[in-house]
Amino acid sequence: MIRVLDGIDAFIDQLTSVHPFPLFLAILAHLVRLACTSTAWRNVLAAAYPEQRVRRIPILGAYLAGVGINALIPVRAGDAVRVVLAHRAIPGSTYTTLVSSSFVLMMFDLVASVSLLVWASLTQNALPPVGRIPDLPSFDFGWLFNRPTLAESVIGGLIIAFGLFLFWAKDHIANFWGRIRQAFTVVGQPKRYVRSVVLWQAGDWTFRLVTIWFLLAAFGIPQTVRNALLVQVSASLATTLPLTPAGIGTEQAFLLYVLRGSVSSAKLLAFSVGMKLTIVVTNVVAGFAAIFLTLRTVRYSRALEPAPQKEG
User: How many Å apart are CA 34 and CA 205, to the nearest integer?
Assistant: First the structure.
């Protein structure tokens, strides 16, 4: 927390030196990136429910609402809002299929993330050894790494809990495995999968890097492909265990390590906090705007209420 506060101080000190035009372009690129991901998710759902008209705008609203909540509340709380809003938008849909649809998108994201991690680790020697991770400044869950027995218990407990859920679900949710397979319908149609999902996810990752490229310019960090890729590596690592809102702290810790030596520590701190604040504020504004337009209120808890029944 102290390191994060230091970063905020550094950001405030250098606020007047932030270049507004590339910052504006970064925000636009980030919004395009969110639209790409939303479109990919919508296409997964359209393949899963071919008998329904899966409209783009409601799914975009659901996705943005989830992103906005995740920016404020840790442990992916916004995902529940996203799924509930999508359920309201698609008549006859099931929560099992909607939740499982996220795993379809994860396949591409996993390949992209692992590829970047392998590149950063093997060709750039940019990542810290596992033993040094708990000692990184601002690392949110270093206390867990410093207690291996507790870490093993937590991981083991999560695996057991997931297994128990699957065991319970197969007997209590009608056609449980069939509903999961339904979410993967598009994967069984390779040409459609590439055209309607993979290409949009490739656009998502492209605009992630474009966003970072403009943010580097906005905060006076050298604009190189290497720096942009390393910043994305830091962001990917921070989402692995989202114990804090938007992964703040973890991402900053990795960012300071992977970009060490490029610029001064003060400028890196300002950049790490400024980048995070830019993304968080954009996500929150877009998310709550989507919630308001969908529910006519900014109370995201309304999304968890049953949809009103139409008369007649």
Answer: 10
Q: Where are the alpha helices (DSSP H) in the chain?
A: 2-13, 20-48, 56-70, 78-89, 95-118, 142-145, 148-172, 176-183, 190-193, 199-218, 225-238, 250-258, 265-295
Q: Shortest CA distance to 267 belongs to which of 311, 307, 225, 227?
A: 227
Distances (CA, A) of 237 to 113, 184, 251, 283: 9, 26, 7, 19
Enter the tokens of residue 194. 């590439």
256: helix, strand or coil:
helix
Q: For the whole model, what pTM was predicted?
A: 0.78
Q: Is position 192 within any domain?
A: yes
Q: Domain tally for the chain?
A: 1
- Residue 141 structural domain: 2-304
How far is 60 from 95, CA to CA, in rounded Å? 17
What string of pLDDT tens digits covers the 312 residues of the chain?
Answer: 445 555 555 556 566 678 899 999 999 999 999 999 999 999 999 999 999 999 999 999 999 999 999 888 866 778 889 999 999 999 989 999 999 999 999 999 999 999 998 888 878 776 655 445 555 554 444 545 555 565 566 557 767 776 666 665 555 565 778 888 999 999 999 999 999 999 999 999 999 999 999 999 998 888 999 889 988 988 887 766 554 544 555 666 677 777 777 777 777 777 888 888 899 999 999 999 998 888 777 665 555 555 554 433
In a domain, 309, yes or no: no
Q: Is 312 among the domain residues? A: no
